[in-house]
Amino acid sequence: MNVKNIEKLEKSRVAVDIEVGAEEFEAAIAKAYLKMRGKISVPGFRPGKAPRKMIEKLYGAEVFYSDAVDIALPDAYTQAIGNSGLDAIGYPEIELGEVTKDGFTFKATVPVYPEVKLGQYKGLSAVKEEVKVSANDVKERLNEMAQRNARLVSVDRKAKKGDIAVIDFEGFDNGTAFDGGKGENYELELGSGSFVPGFEEQVIGMKAGEEKDIDITFPEDYHADLAGKAVVFHVKVNEVKFKEIPALDDDFAKDVSEFDTIKELKDDIKKNLVNEREQAAKVAFENTLIEKVAEGIECDIPDVLIDEQCKRFLEEFKSRLQSQGIPYDQYLKMTGMSEEQFMEEGKEPAIRQVKMDLAIAQIIKEENLAVSDDEVEAEYKKLAERYGMDVEALKQYLPAADVNRQVLNEKAIAVVFNSAKAEKPAKAEEKAEESAEGEKAEKAEKKPARKSTKKAAEKAE
């Protein structure tokens, strides 16, 4: 194998001209003969027993060339890329050249990991939200806890907003039941907005045992089969339940927590809210900084990296749908979207993510960052504690290489974060206003200059 030429192309691709010599090609032809001889019929010989020379004499010397190329080419390509020190990504496009008894040539065009030139990544500034937790925030969290611990009590009265109506329902389009329009003993929270607009409002006021038909028009943006259609739902209310919310007192605190008083529970909620919001503010600050670093890089990004990121986004989205019990095909039907549209819409965020990944990788390289085995082990322990798993069990699902990469990325982000300056939101707004005023002033200064130039031109005429 011999690399004859390497040509750099746009979008971080290279075209590699490769030559496979006579000796290597002959070895591949010999393998092709052994593979194919049982499939070739030669008069006077049993299948698979005809000598190679006899087959070549009968069918031509080129009879094994195609299979020999298929055998030799992958190894030649791998060696060429390795020997050239190219960091290839994705699959190559192969253009076969001349094939003779003395060997063959081919051109492999393949994307390579791009060269990245970093802009500023230290000493950046960005807005960091100030963390505040009010008494209303604590009360809201307490109310959420109370809602989760509410008892459902069956009541003999008309259903009101906020009640749970246990219903049977079936939808009809011009008298014909349609797919997905039927349910039995479905617990519908009235006012939740979980059903098609207009449905829940018409169930309000019904009592247990009551039946009626409800007229509904589906929204225009509903899935294609029912979009904009006027249908009828036959509804029967089996039971009406009322949420009995517990009082927010010391007994409630004892029931839902390890605390004896409501004050202790409130203090703990406030502490947890502060921690949550501080972590969220830190993550948002880091993301803003890394986005700034990504915007400043110079890089010719290959399409394959963007396509792969789009596919990752799609797989993540499918997983989220699955966790919610929504089949992916059904989601596409409901939204009227195609997978191609989803991938196209994902390109812009995919480009942003790829640029951030490339920026982080380049920081790792320039800062000579590394991760020790002890650091990987410490990260395993932290993750195991977070997810309530045994460390050894976690290692079965999470490869050490992934943990190493995660710690390495965090170190790169820390390089940016530790040198950055956090701006208060008000200060950032003042800067934006100053910048806008500056632009106005600059425009105002330029206007007279344009007028005087025009007058000078008129005088010259």
Q: Short summary of the structure?
A:
With 461 residues, the protein is α+β, with helices and mostly antiparallel strands. It has 15 helices and 13 strands.
Describe this structure in words.
The protein is of the alpha+beta class. Among the domains are: 2-113, Alpha-Beta Plaits; 151-244, Chitinase A, domain 3 (Roll); 424-460. Helix content is 51%, strand content 20%. It is built from 15 helices and 13 strands. It has helices at residues 22-36, 52-59, 65-84, 135-148, 199-203, 250-256, 262-295, 303-323, 328-335, 339-345, 347-366, 373-387, 391-397, 400-418, 425-460; strands at residues 2-9, 13-20, 93-100, 103-111, 116-117, 125-127, 151-154, 164-173, 176-189, 211-217, 230-244, 298-299, 421-423. The strands form four sheets. Strands 7, 8, 9, 10 and 11 form a five-stranded antiparallel sheet that branches. A four-stranded antiparallel sheet has the order 1-2-4-3. A hairpin with a 2-residue loop joins strand 8 and strand 9. Helix 1 (22-36) crosses helix 3 (65-84), helix 4 (135-148) crosses helix 7 (262-295) and helix 6 (250-256) packs across helix 7 (262-295). The chain is extended and about 95 Å long. The N and C termini lie far apart (73 Å).
Shape: extended
Assess the beta-strand content as a share of residues: 15-25%
Main beta-sheet annotation: 5 strands, antiparallel
**Count of DSSP-assigned helices:** 15
> What would the average pLDDT be, to the nearest integer?
88
